[in-house]
């Protein structure tokens, strides 16, 4: 009876050694490919962060400055006081 075994291990020891070396080389290639892709993504993220830092000024990623004066203690009952920062519009949002 004929049958097909594509993943049969060869009996020749030299061919086994060659296939093992090929498998190790393939795993090394996949590992290096993944590391290169990761390094490229990390580099692109760093460049994007630097561009954002230079185009948006020194306020990106830093807390808002402290208020100049303390809030008045004589606020009307039912009024909630707070601080806010006015953000500029981005790409037509909020129109």
Describe the structure.
The model has no long low-confidence stretch (mean pLDDT 81). The protein is 45% helix and 0% strand. The protein has a domain at 32-61. It is mostly helical and 95 residues long.
Q: Can you give keywords for this protein?
A:
95 residues, rod-shaped
Reported for the largest beta sheet, the result is: none
Query: Which value, in Å, is the CA radius of gyration?
Result: 31 Å
Low-confidence spans: none
The helix content, as a percent range, equals: 40-55%
Counted by DSSP, the helix tally is 1
Shape: rod-shaped
Instruction: Tell how many strands the DSSP assignment holds.
Output: 0
Give the N-to-C terminal Cα separation.
75 Å
SS class? mainly alpha
* SSE string, helices as H and strands as E: H
Q: If you average the pLDDT, what whole number results?
A: 81
Architecture blueprint of SSEs:
Blueprint: H1 13-55
Care to give the gist of this entry?
The protein has 95 residues and is an all-alpha fold. The protein is 45% helix and 0% strand. It has a domain at 32-61.
